[in-house]
Amino acid sequence: MTTLTSATDTLTRDALAVLQPGFTGTTAPDWVLRRVDEGLASVALFGRNVQTPEQVTALTTQLRAEREDLLVAIDEEGGDVTRLEVRTGSSFPGNLALGYVDDVDLTRAVAQELGRRLAECGVDLNWAPSADINSNPDNPIIGVRAFGADTQLVARHTAAYIEGLQASGVAACTKHFPGHGDTAVDSHHAMPRIDVDLETLHARELVPFRAAVEAGSKCVMSAHILLPALDADRPGTVSPRILTGLLREELGYDGLIVTDAVEMRAIAGTYGIERGSVLAIAAGADALCVGGGLEDDGTVLRLRDALVAAVRNGELPEERLADAAARVRALASWTRAAKGAGSEPGAAAQEGIAAGSGIGLVAARRAVRVTGSAEPLTAPAYVASFTSASNIAVGDETPWGVAAELDRLVPGTRTGTYDGETEEPAGAVVRAAGERRIVVVVRDAHRHAWMGEALDALVARRPDTVVVEMGVPQAPARGALHIATHGAARVCGQAAAEIIARGGTED
User: Fold this and answer.
1) Which of 128, 34, 40 lies closest to 79, judged by CA?
2) Do 255 and 229 meet the contact criterion of CB atoms below 8 Å apart?
3) In terms of Cα–Cα distance, which of 82, 113, 104, 80 is closest to 94?
4) DSSP line for 16-54
5) What's residue 140's pLDDT?
6) Where would a tag sit more exposed on the chain, N or C end, judged by fewer CB atoms within 10 A?
7) Cβ pair 468, 370 in contact under 8 A
8) Is 482 helix (H, G, I), strand (E, B) or coil?
9) Closest CA relative to residue 172, chosen from 123, 223, 225, 224
């Protein structure tokens, strides 16, 4: 009887150990502390858990009072996807900006400074970088989150980012394996499908992940994507052929494999989160991300119980669950050991970049591409923001644009927001602007026909219009001055505002 109780306890603890759940609140709820005590080995932080760095530090301290080796994960890519600065915008440009500069030392230094700030807050696993290749410019979910569309460029910057982040003592999580770039569907909403042959996958999608393995990425995140060339029946997250056969055996990866969020519709709508979670662990995943949308104790218990039941009914080998839990604990051990090593001089120090420096703004300024010219602003401008629905990864809490930064430089700047439902947006902007210089801010204008039409009409009426593209600069440059920032982080807006205020000239 004693043996049976012990085995049950071990099984339950292992089932809890493979979960990486989120929760609500800026302090840890009682249920989270209770599950940590029972064996939960990881938690995930989202924007809803963040107010200030000091508050996050207090939160992680509270959590680790229950379990010293608890893994605290976050989705902090920098750029458009930020949790630490969810209400202000990021101090770091995202991947596309870094890829445009194409200076691997800069990428390494930015990642290390970002990691240093995470480590100071008690975060030790970052679900970044994105190693996806933005081969489909109409991709609704990757875009500026990718380093670019060139395979070798993405590979070298993925490796540099991993090296920089892990030099700070924070584990990198390279995503979204085996590649989310060539999709036209957001896996938050439905199941994407990539219909390319094996030769293309190996020559394109898999190259950055091979670089990530070689760079020592401590974690890889799976994608909820169907790739018939690899597995005609199952998407990556629940495919043994992809997670075990390809990633583990062919690419030789021995670190932690974590799923993308299991409540995303590509998994939840196909299998349900309980069965999807069991299939993922059976396929070779070691940890289950959950909590971006489901952040309650009931969800954790449902997944725990589903895993335990799957072991007991023979669907999930107990050894597979035990191996997954052991890999989670091993990563936690690495992060504890790396905390001291992360304080040693690394890439950023070698580049002469002090801790707490403005390396993010330095990078954002270098990432700006200017076409055309304009005179300096001698009076406040009118900023028209052309907006579309935010994707779920970015969210709609994080501010973006140039209006706030331009108002700081040229007080009195006014702004207005326009979308695809606005009647004759060009005329509306002209009327609202009056005599002011017009600055139009867009993201991914090439993906929204109404934006292109409105820009053409506006520039025809006001040729001195300045256009700032803060997404993928795929559309033709319009306006007297066109500024491509390669991302919508706060520092990208600041870099653009500086050019507008002082007057810009083509590079």
Assistant:
1) 128
2) no
3) 80
4) HHTEEE--SSSS--HHHHHHHHHT--EEEE-GGG-S-HH
5) 76
6) N
7) no
8) strand
9) 123
Torsion-angle region of residue 186: left (phi > 0), alpha (psi -120 to 50) or beta? beta
- Nearest Cα to Cα of residue 43 among 122, 132, 155: 122
- What the block records as the tokens of 99 is 């890829």
> Is the pTM above the cut of 0.90?
yes
Number of H helices, E strands in the chain: 19, 14
Report whether 74 contacts 111 (CB < 8 A).
Answer: no
Residues designated catalytic: 188, 260
Collapsing DSSP to helix, strand or coil, 332 comes out as helix
Identify the burial level of 95 via C-beta atoms within 10 angstroms of its C-beta, where 0-12 means exposed, 13-18 middle and 19 or more buried: buried
What are the tens digits of pLDDT across the range 211-225? 999 999 999 999 999
The answer to whether the peptide bond before residue 129 is cis (omega within 30 degrees of 0) is yes
* CA–CA dist 64, 33 (Å, integer): 9
Instruction: Concatenate the DSSP letters of all residues of 422-475 into one string.
Output: SSSHHHHHHHHHTTSPEEEEES-GGG-HHHHHHHHHHHHH-TT-EEEE-S---S
Q: Token pair of 169, please?
A: 């003592």
